[in-house]
Amino acid sequence: MTSVEQLPTGADKARAVRTMFDTIAPRYDLMNRLLTFGLDVGWRRAAVRALVGVATGEHVVDVACGTGDLCRELASAGFVPLGVDLSAGMLAAARTDAPLVEADALAMPLPDASVGGVTCGFALRNFIALGPALAEMARVVRPGGRVALLEVGQPANPVLRWGHRIYFGRVVPFVGGLLSDRAAYRYLPRSVAYLPPPDELVALVASVGFRDARRIALSGGIAQLLVGTRA
Fold it and tell me: 7, 13, 72, 203: which sits with the fewest CB atoms below 10 Å from its CB?
């Protein structure tokens, strides 16, 4: 696996991630559907269902909202979504009626304890500092509110893990290069190196103030959902 040291960090990472998502925004939704065979739709719905205890009509912030997929799912479930993203290109390509704000996930323009929940779809590895980003999510969620964070995962089954490694590491960059931006779809599999191991990731979510934090493996472990309740 590629080490984090070989990937951009700090301000360099923020610039690289913003530029990358600005570039791939026009075909982002198409690529998600193709590369996941449509499974990403179900994963987002699982994240929304995990917002147990958040009342319909409450505000839920989707961090790194991209083109608004999760915002649309949140609205369909009766929540009032607000999207936050660092990429102006992704926000310009968004297909949602939710209010959208161009902002850093480490400094969201929201009051303390002002929302019922936070969602995030496959962006944890793109933050320049994961711990502070999770702490910022905890800051804006009211006590008893929920967090539901999607990320890529590693299957526990050795055969599935081998096949997933080949697909994610070779097929995804190839198809991405044909239909979108080759450099971006080479980076995305490599960026998994930014993520801590599952147990450490759950512990990190718990450490910022989300009690009963746990990890749910999705589709055999190729994706993961991290959930918790604000203490």
Answer: 203
Q: What are phi and psi of 87, to 5 degrees?
A: -95, 115
Strand bridging mode 80-85 / 100-102? parallel
Domains in the chain with CATH codes: 4-230 (3.40.50.150)
Q: What average pLDDT score do residues 94-103 get?
A: 97
Across the beta sheet with 223-230, what order do the strands follow? 100-102, 80-85, 59-63, 115-121, 141-152, 223-230, 210-218
Contacts for 127 with CB less than 8 Å, ≥ 6 apart: 64, 105, 106, 133
* Alpha carbons 181 and 33: distance in angstroms, whole number: 16
pLDDT at 162 over 50: yes
- pLDDT, average across residues 22-41: 96
Q: Would you state the structure tokens that stand for residue 13, as one six-digit string?
A: 């990472």
| Contacts of 37 by beta carbon, 8 Å cutoff, 6+ apart | none
pTM: 0.94
